[in-house]
């Protein structure tokens, strides 16, 4: 048995014993506050580390199902053949070195009243505050014909890893002259500019390696993030190669047939050689199990503390949360994690958290040397996280190519910085 797993199991037994001795998970007076974080992605791992930095007395346990984290940002460059998947992968060694107990397993249940998390092996972890950061799940079946078996033929690649490589391999195997189709979902979904960055980098691959091919983006929306910038760049870099079909022109995909790689819209049918279906999404399953997701499938939160509006003592951060004007991005997840950690560290001491300000910047690559970005600042207003008026914006429309190249370099630098902060 690995040392980390053994240590965790020992801790788990101690935790179960203490839970049994103290009903409802109540902690002895003066004992260290216990915070359990579920999900070791950009939100959860950031929050766990920030908590330890803010108050080393807090006993933090991070429950994460995978031993290696595979990051989505820049995974479109893997699909476009510009980067290896290993550049996206990180372990939890440095997180554990901060004194955080890693529970290398899946959280399967939450006893809200008793304040404990149930793990896959049945062990229970008592908590004083719980942070849920499970990212997204796919809404299997929400798009007719798209289930887990279909994803093996028409990859979504919206959780990075095997699916990313599958899409990459399909593009490599396609003959020159083939049709690639991407279907983009309605809002809200993980990474609003992501489908358009992906379209750009697939177009770059086709232009340089298979120039007789074509790419169609079928979209369930009429507008999208950084649209003017993307479209101007497409006209310049990929004329005749990349076609975007909005909702109003028949872009909404209503069903798919994986066996024939067929995508059906209200207006017609598209027979693809390679089909990338980005399906509707929802908060990771544990959110539903814990009762913090509403009928939309996402989790309403108090913008001051990121505590669930549905269950006291549980905070929800990252993609799973309904964060008002904030997009579902790794940058936003990291920002929310720090605010949540500060709120939790204050609340477990009986204090009142300060009013937070959060930021987000999302870079997108349109080509390896062509980057664009959008930035925003957010604060609690009207029960939501709202835009701070006038603080934010997008890259200028008329920037010279040198500025686009500089933003492409910044995208890479941002990725290095955030992954070092979260996992390094
Ligand atoms: C193609 C693509 C490109 C992107 N590009 C960018 C970008 O350039 N910039 C940017 O800021 N964002 C980008 N994003 C968005 C970014 O990846 C997400 O917003 C971010 O990962 C959200 O972080 P999270 O912690 O909420 O979820 P995740 O990072 O997905 O982490 C969730 C973690 O929770 C774990 N987990 C879930 N349920 C359980 C459970 N029950 N028990 C134990 N563990 C569990 C999972 O294993 C996972 O490790 C991109 C996304 C995609 C798909």
What is the tally of helical segments?
Answer: 11
Percent of residues in helices: 25-40%
Q: How far from one another are the termini? A: 25 Å
Mean pLDDT: 94
Describe this structure in words.
The protein contains eleven helices and 24 strands. The protein is of the alpha/beta class and 424 residues long. Helix 8 links the parallel strand 12 (214-219) and strand 13 (242-245). The longest helix has 23 residues, at 401-423. Mean pLDDT is 94; it is low at 1-25. The structure holds flavin-adenine dinucleotide. Flavin-adenine dinucleotide binds next to helix 2, helix 3, helix 7, helix 10 and strand 22.
Summarize the structure.
By secondary structure, the chain is an alpha/beta fold. 31% of the residues lie in helices and 27% in strands. The protein has helices at residues 3-21, 42-54, 75-79, 93-97, 148-151, 162-173, 194-209, 227-237, 285-289, 330-347, 401-423, and strands at residues 34-38, 59-63, 68-70, 89-91, 101-103, 107-111, 116-119, 124-126, 129-132, 136-138, 179-184, 214-219, 242-245, 253-257, 262-265, 269-271, 274-277, 281-283, 299-300, 314-316, 321-322, 358-367, 370-381, 384-394.
Task: Name a few traits of the molecule.
about 425 residues, globular, binds flavin-adenine dinucleotide
Write the layout of secondary structure elements.
Layout: H1 3-21, E1 34-38, H2 42-54, E2 59-63, E3 68-70, H3 75-79, E4 89-91, H4 93-97, E5 101-103, E6 107-111, E7 116-119, E8 124-126, E9 129-132, E10 136-138, H5 148-151, H6 162-173, E11 179-184, H7 194-209, E12 214-219, H8 227-237, E13 242-245, E14 253-257, E15 262-265, E16 269-271, E17 274-277, E18 281-283, H9 285-289, E19 299-300, E20 314-316, E21 321-322, H10 330-347, E22 358-367, E23 370-381, E24 384-394, H11 401-423
The structure holds flavin-adenine dinucleotide.
